Model the fold of this input.
Amino acid sequence: MSKFDHHFRMTEADAAEYAAQRLPLFGGSGPLECSEIGDGNINYVFRVRDPIGGRSVIIKHADAGTRSGSRVLGFDRNRIEAEILKMEGELAPGLVPAVYDYDPVMSCLSMEDLSDHRILRYELMAHKKFPRLAEDISDFMAKTLVPTLDTVMDPAEKKELVKRYTNPQLCAITEQLVYTDPYTNAAGHNKVFPPNADFVAGEIYGDSLLHLEVAKLKYQFMNNAQALIHGDLHSGSIFVREDSTKVIDPEFAFYGPAGYDVGNVVGNMCFAWANAAVTMERGKDREEYIDWLDATIVDIVELFKKKFSSLFAARISDRMAMTEGYSSWLLGTILADSAGVAGVEMIRRAVGTAQVKDLTSIGDSAARKLAEQLVMLSAKRCIMNRESYTEGRNYTDTLHEVLKSLGR
Ligand code: SR1
Ligand code: MG
Done:
């Protein structure tokens, strides 16, 4: 009998004891150090370290309720995350942390400690550049999305994966937080920055044509079981080092529209753009940083297009999908979805409950007001004109044009 035979919510001391008992990595070494380092809304994240040998591990631990106490989610997300991380590790080697152990009883996922990496969102807010980012993240998306299309993989196997990764509770969060609440505030949970209250009332709550397009995008999210997507690929789910990129946190993974991942990455790069545009002083540093962000956004989209097309051509299995023109039609639909998703991600992070530090950390009220308006107006263009967002530069042109229209 062990105290870990039944699920309970662990403390730091429990997690240290658990790691010593459960993980061969520590080989029965002496007392382990543990700290809870999670800052998300959903799970508990422990870093356990052997102070003598120096080895360390991350244990992601799920309770039935969310960490923020706002909802009950059950435990399946922890299984999905463990399995998807392993699958992503096979499809895109080197771009996700190694999984050491998954324990369905304690709902614990033990994985590689990425303490030598940093969270992309905070690095971009510090105006740092990452030369590998566009190459690595486009690689991750092409290598995980293309092989899970059912014109590539065996269609029966794909349908088994659809069943295995049906993720109703986490999809419900996205359907509500991304595709509903920001437009209706029906749940009364939106967190509008007061100086933008009138702007949001007019541009977001009051725009029925926008609502119609978002309703169509929501339908796409709910019904387009296209590829096994990460499902939450924002800049807090990407860890970076100068020479390395790692994607974490695929607990929202399910069979959905491939553009959901691409759009999340691009939308989150736009937050970094807005932050830099309003917080950096005019001059060479700002110009160089905006140039780097522009080039990175363009490269993410263009490299994804290139890698998607060549992987699809190499891996396609469906006879009809080999028809001339099919691959570019498919990519075109994914790019339109990506623009729509970039837009809904930008709006929900400015208006909804799950906000981003890129915007909320801007201390100067006028600058934050401007950054949020830049994000929301750019988002609306992405959503309303998504069929024409076929190139990376469409996003950067939009950001520059909207900023100019706001008088900057
Ligand atoms: C209740 S969860 C809020 C948000 O955090 C996750 O990372 C997802 O983005 C979700 O929408
Ligand atoms: Mg997360």
Observations:
- The mean pLDDT is 97.
- The beta strands are 33-36, 44-49, 56-61, 99-103, 108-112, 118-119, 227-229, 238-241, 244-247, 254-256.
